[in-house]
Design a protein that fits this description.
Elements (H helix, E strand, L loop, with lengths): L1 H7 L2 H20 L1 H4 L1 H16 L6 H4 L6 H26 L7 H24 L5 H19 L17 H24 L4
Helix pairs in contact: 1-6, 2-4, 2-6, 4-7, 4-8, 6-7, 7-9
Length: 194
């Protein structure tokens, strides 16, 4: 499984994204009031990179191989472990500037990774070769837009900002995202052979 992950996961992309994520969160930690949008951009980059980890460039061959989708998904999840570890480090290093909500910020990233994983696994189970690239092309700009423009942030607090923001509502929203993602992932891999 590790041998497969070493070749299948885009480790250079994971490392580069991890460095950008840590850098962005360090900036947020130092200047939270002016640089907070970078936190949302980091969540988007985290989810986009997670999605990319599951692309199968040679799907026509891989889908007929003895190793089925569930096994390949488990192997590629090693890339997710690296991303979540990097996200955890980034949140810990910047926790002083996270308005006392480091755990909530961590949850945003973890739930975004779960949602991206669930979506691309569902698409791979449906036979699509590289859904991660398409998902990344949507998720990263969407997160950046939401972090910068904050449309409907009172109604849908995806990326709250400041101590007075609706963090409880945001936490509930991200727990729902993680729960739906877990159910989707379980369903997508439920009939898959190991």
């Amino acid at each position: 499984m590790i041998h497969h992950a070493a070749r299948a996961v885009p480790w250079l992309l994971v490392a580069a994204s991890g460095a950008v994520i840590v850098g962005a969160m360090l900036v947020v930690g130092h200047w939270p009031y002016t640089m907070w949008p970078l936190q949302g951009c980091a969540v988007g980059l985290l989810a986009g990179t997670a999605a990319w980890c599951f692309d199968e460039p040679a799907a026509a061959i891989a889908d007929t191989a003895p190793r089925h989708l569930a096994w390949r998904t488990a192997a590629r999840s090693l890339g997710l472990l690296a991303l979540v570890a990097t996200w955890t480090l980034a949140v810990l290093l910047s926790r002083g500037g996270l308005f006392g909500h480091a755990l909530d910020v961590w949850l945003q990233g973890a739930a975004a990774v779960m949602a991206a994983t669930a979506y691309v696994t569902w698409r791979r189970a449906a036979g699509h070769e590289s859904p991660g690239r398409r998902a990344s092309a949507v998720v990263v700009p969407f997160a950046a837009f939401w972090a910068l423009a904050r449309p409907a942030s009172e109604v849908l607090p995806l990326l709250p900002y400041s101590e007075a923001a609706p963090w409880d509502d945001s936490r509930l929203l991200w727990v729902i995202v993680a729960t739906v993602a877990s159910a989707t992932l379980s369903h997508s891999l439920g009939d898959a052979q190991w």
